[in-house]
Automatic annotation (TrEMBL):
One of its GO terms (cellular component) is endomembrane system. Keywords: Cell inner membrane, Cell membrane, Membrane, Signal, Transport. It is found in: Endomembrane system. InterPro entries: NrtA/CpmA_ABC-bd_dom. This is Nitrate transport protein NrtA.
């Protein structure tokens, strides 16, 4: 495409008008669905001739199934969910999938129970000792077997010397149910997105031991995902959908007031159905861990950051595949770069960003250092997957209890 229109109406009136005027857009009750909700409710899609019908989902498995069946056109989705479906792991047949853009970075947390606090298990070191010395086996919850929360939980535990598949048990719990499971004593800890970690602290049902941004500063998190068939059948619709959500992402970060109004919007029953005081502080980077510590997090939840959040970097998608390989979800190395190039819709994203005057970021890869000191830059992914002391590459894929 050459002459990109500069106004929304040019998209509506010209040959680049969306093929579908209304799409069904799935989301989960998490703070990081913010840009999707803002785009749909605050008038960001209508100028492009698009209506976004929000569809709240009760579980990631349900969202996955509706994406694949076409009941949902696109969705606020876990990065790892899209890649698992594409690769045919995690309880589904392979289906060509697409990542249209990144929706956010950072903003997830690992919480432990008050029972563990009473046992003075309040640090990585004391948790390590407890796991290896206690006869009682701990159970941790995450939100989806191949999702980001499973990968953050596994990575963090392993970085502390705890094998996530051998030393502890792992179960799947939908995000809004985490606090209730913790309160009932069914789990000893969890990894989940906000506002549910903050909610556990507010209700005195647990404390935050680690944030995901402490594991990987500015890590990839949720994406705008869909099937590859949707992109191929409705390329203009996909493009203007990205444009609308990009504009909403930019709006949220334009001022603290916009973040506060976004928190207010999200607290409504139709979206998160959670108290404002569980949503707003951490959306603003104001953290309290329930142990008496409070801080302003320099890597709090980000939605745009001049477009750096939204570019679907090839290396981000590849990282999740290295972890699938590390933990035995993939028995063999995939074509890491080839798969990422197929899934990540870089060209479409860059067309949308350029039309809005947002930096399209020429690099396809980025480099980051994680909590264990390892650097991930997208190079030599197979060697990277094999470089970890703790792994599950020689056994059968782990069985994760479903709830």
């Amino acid at each position: 495409m050459t002459d990109l229109p500069n106004t929304p109406l040019a998209w509506v009136n010209g040959s680049d008008a969306p093929e579908k005027s209304a799409i069904d857009l799935g989301f989960m009750a998490l703070t990081d669905c913010a840009s999707v909700v803002v785009a749909a409710t605050q008038g960001f899609a209508q100028p492009y001739g698009l209506t976004l019908n929000l569809k709240r989902q009760s579980s990631w498995a349900g969202l996955r199934d509706k994406l694949v069946s076409g009941e949902l056109d696109a969705a606020h989705s876990l990065y790892g969910l899209i890649y698992a479906v594409h690769l045919g792991i995690g309880g589904t047949n392979p289906c060509d999938m697409a990542v249209l853009m990144g929706l956010n970075q950072n903003g997830q947390s690992i919480n432990l129970s008050r029972e563990l606090q009473n046992l003075k298990v309040t640090s990585p070191e004391t948790l390590d000792r407890h796991v290896h010395q206690s006869r009682a086996r701990l159970t941790f919850a995450q939100t989806f077997p191949t999702g980001t929360h499973a990968m953050w939980l596994y990575y963090w535990l392993a970085s502390q010397g705890i094998h996530p598949l051998q030393d502890v048990d792992s179960v799947v719990v939908p995000p809004p149910q985490m606090v209730a499971h913790l309160q009932a004593g069914r789990i000893d800890g969890f990894c989940v997105g906000e506002p549910w970690s903050a909610s556990a602290v507010q209700q005195d049902q647990g404390f935050t031991l680690a944030t995901s941004q402490a594991i990987w500063p500015d890590h990839p998190e949720k994406v705008l995902g869909c099937t590859r068939a949707f992109v191929e059948q409705y390329p203009n619709t996909a493009r203007v959908l990205v444009m609308a959500i990009l504009e909403a992402s930019r709006f949220i970060e334009q001022s603290p007031e916009n973040r506060r109004s976004t928190a207010q919007l999200l607290s409504a029953a139709d979206y998160l159905n959670a108290p404002l005081d569980c949503i707003e502080p951490r959306l603003l980077g104001d953290y309290a861990d329930g142990l008496g510590n409070r801080w302003q997090d320099p890597h709090a939840l980000r939605f745009h950051h001049h477009g750096a959040v939204n570019l679907p970097y090839l290396s981000d998608g590849m990282w999740f595949m290295t972890q699938f390989r590390r933990w035995g979800l993939l028995r063999e190395d995939p074509d890491y770069l080839g798969v990422a190039r197929h899934v990540q819709q870089l060209e479409l994203y860059r067309e949308a960003a350029t039309a809005l005057g947002i930096a399209a970021w020429g690099q396809d890869m980025r480099s980051s250092q994680l909590i264990d000191g390892k650097v991930w830059d997208g190079s030599e992914p197979a060697a990277y997957a094999r470089s970890f002391r703790l792994h599950a590459m020689n056994g059968t894929p782990p069985l994760v209890a479903q709830r």
